Amino acid sequence: MIHGSYPALRLRRTRAAAWSRAMVAETHLTPSDLIWPVFVTGGSGQREPIRSMPGVERLSVDLLAGAAREAAGLGIPCLALFPNTEPERRSDDGREALNPDNLMCRAIAAIKATVPEIGILTDVALDPYTSHGHDGLLDDAGRILNDASVEVLVGQALNQARAGADIIAPSDMMDGRIGAIRAALEGERFHDVQIMSYAVKYASAFYGPFRDAVGSGGYLKGDKKTYQMDPANAEEGLREVALDLAEGADHVMVKPGLPYLDMVCRVKERFEVPVFAYQVSGEYAMIEAAVAAGVLDRDRGVLETLTAFKRAGCSGVLTYHAIHAAKLLG
Ligand code: PBG
User: Which whole-number Å values give the CA distances from 19 to 13, 14, 22, 25, 284, in the listed order?
Assistant: First the structure.
């Protein structure tokens, strides 16, 4: 759409002053666009630094209320919780995911009791609970079993909903799990519990630091390519979204973030539903490594990347920089 030509048209005119740039800005980033992923650990009074994610800590349950209060005070609408399960509670079948008193459920309860105004999004997948680090159950040959895994994931989702989770976020990539979880939630009258499906989730090199954070990396044998998507594929991601929406997802997620903004844009244009992106642990580590090397301005880099997600069509972004970004925006 060209409405004229130079010199009648000079696009630099509207860029010349700050007031004018603000007036024509097409995208506005606010703290309400941010979802803050928080890692939870056992014990009390614990703040454990994560070596591969400088600046990020695992928090014990008693410290979560303070973190939630800070986030809510900054205008962040929602926390995403990830447990670092004690090694002795990990097993082949990940049964700790079904324990109503597990770290995740205690974390949900602690936040709900003290900061009820913040949303809680919970991860559904078995990797923080299995002794092999996979998101589902394995057969004797080491293949991931789809339908048997879905049964456990349904139990995990119900366990989280009973503990008070607001948004169930399945990140496991098994086929059919959204429909099964939705039916189970309806069956227990959890009509208002939302599902944010990790619909377009790639088998990515950028999850390494996360696996340190939840302690699954050391256990993981092989890769996740039989369930997570091939980074080469886009059409397949659109099919994943279509299925998950038909099965009852309220929102869909694209993950990782920046290398997959094309998918955010395509999903938004095609489906016109809320789309979220996860700026994952490896992306966080990359930004922090660049800052530490003196080659990137953290504040500008963080706000620029988050604005790019919004421009691409995101309703919001899961980012480990959420608190820092919200402070900058406030
Ligand atoms: C687990 C899960 C992963 C992430 C979120 N949920 C890791 C994986 O699939 O191996 C990655 C998040 C991040 O890297 O920040 N199913």
Answer: 12, 9, 5, 10, 31
